[in-house]
Write a structure and sequence with these properties.
Distance between the termini: 109 Å
Helix content: 40-55%
Structural class: mainly alpha
Strand order of the largest sheet: 1-2
Largest sheet: 2 strands, antiparallel
């Protein structure tokens, strides 16, 4: 049995219903009745009710305004067969202009003295919340110093006590650097195969340690060929793009890092690596100090806006002075040759930093990763060292020849 329709009726609904008047509305007070009811005060109270004698209010006044029926039905028909717009004089709301979409006004700028969201208001019994002020170079300086000291200890301790462990540290750094680079270049749509790159990078460092410069070039060739064969399994789509990115990573990370193994191989290899890293650290520290305090002329604003010519002068000066002293004390090299070594290594370090800044800007990333607090990714610390390693290897091979 179907449910009864509470609104059920035998009469037609909607627009098909005949024009019948509704029952009178019992207005409790006369002062709240619509104005047009007062204008037609001569009409009987049951104006809209159907009377027994057949009287209808519009029967005697066919042209009288019908305040609601004409508006609902679209207005009386005009001479052209269309319904004209009804007179809006008796309907105040119909005379209002329609609401149009208006763009919201911009939110006013927050006054300088207003506290920011999430910061408690200072009072007489409590001081204002202190926010750590970033350094002028944009780093978290305490975290950067702590991470730098930890990395230095991780390098220096195995370098002087067990060199194969230092080579293992270099191989691990190469693996992490390859992972960061492959992760970053994926933003450009390239997908270099990660497994052959990491395996080939570790192999390249090991070959350089055991067999010298020729084995380093052989390791690079094996890495590129292994990456090519691995990538063929994924089909021809995007093959050239992926292989180009893989070749760039293989040259940039494991090949350049392999010169650290070449520097370590001689008997005095620990001192060679030490003076090279010291020159890079002096260059970075001198450039940071000079740039933060005196930097006014941008060096390469389209690549690295924070680098200035004053900072570059500080890098070169600090590296030249420190290298002149270190090479004279540790490797018995004349101070002027040591100064030349420091200038060359500092220039290579700055060039490597700019090269990675250009890569990151092209990829649209700020840091290669967030692995190291205050430094970003590992490649953000290796960028200057990677370019300094082959420069130091070549210069030390001239200044301090290796005796067979």
């Amino acid at each position: 049995m179907s449910h009864l329709d509470p609104h059920g009726s035998t009469e037609p609904r909607g627009w098909d219903r005949p024009d019948v008047s509704a029952p009178a509305l019992p207005w409790p007070e006369a002062d709240i009745e619509p104005d047009h009811w007062h204008r037609r005060s001569a009409a009987p109270p049951d104006t809209y009710a159907e009377r027994q004698d057949g009287f209808h209010p519009y029967a005697e006044e066919p042209d009288a305004p019908r305040p609601y029926a004409d508006v609902v039905r679209g207005g009386p028909a005009g001479p052209n067969g269309h319904r004209d717009r009804p007179d809006d004089s008796e309907f105040p709301t119909a005379q209002l202009e329609p609401v149009r979409d208006v763009e919201p006004e911009p939110e006013p700028a927050r006054p300088p003295g207003r506290r920011q969201r999430g910061r408690r208001r200072a009072g007489a019994d409590r001081p204002p919340t202190q926010q750590p002020a970033p350094s002028r170079a944009g780093r978290n300086l305490p975290a950067a110093i702590a991470v730098g000291v930890a990395l230095g200890a991780l390098i220096v301790v195995p370098l002087f006590f067990y060199r194969p462990a230092f080579v293992a540290v270099v191989a691990g750094a190469v693996a992490v650097g390859i992972w960061e680079m492959a992760r970053a270049v994926r933003r450009s749509g390239a997908h270099p195969p990660l497994v052959p790159l990491i395996a080939g990078g570790v192999l390249t460092v090991g070959l350089a340690w055991f067999a010298g410069p020729d084995a380093l070039s052989l390791g690079l060739l094996v890495t590129v060929l292994g990456t090519m064969v691995w990538r063929l399994g994924d089909g021809p789509r995007g093959f050239q793009r992926d292989l180009t990115a893989a070749t760039l990573i293989a040259v940039y990370v494991p090949f350049l890092a392999g010169f650290a193994a070449l520097l370590t191989a001689p008997e005095d290899g620990d001192l060679r690596v030490l003076v090279t890293l010291a020159a890079v650290v002096l260059s970075d520290t001198g450039g940071y100090a000079a740039g933060a305090n005196f930097g006014k002329h941008p060096m390469a604003p389209s690549i690295s806006p924070k680098k200035s010519w004053e900072g570059f002068a500080g890098s070169v000066g600090a590296a030249a002075l420190g290298s002149a002293l270190l090479l004279w004390l540790l490797l018995d090299v004349a101070p002027w040759w040591g100064a030349i070594f420091g200038i060359a290594v500092s220039g290579a370090a700055v060039l490597g930093d700019l090269a990675e800044s250009m890569i990151k800007r092209d990829l649209g990333v700020k840091d290669m990763s967030n692995l190291l607090p205050g430094h970003g990714g590992l490649m953000d610390r290796l960028d200057s060292i990677l370019f300094a390693l082959p420069t130091a290897y070549l210069l030390l091979a001239v200044f301090v020849p290796v005796l067979e």
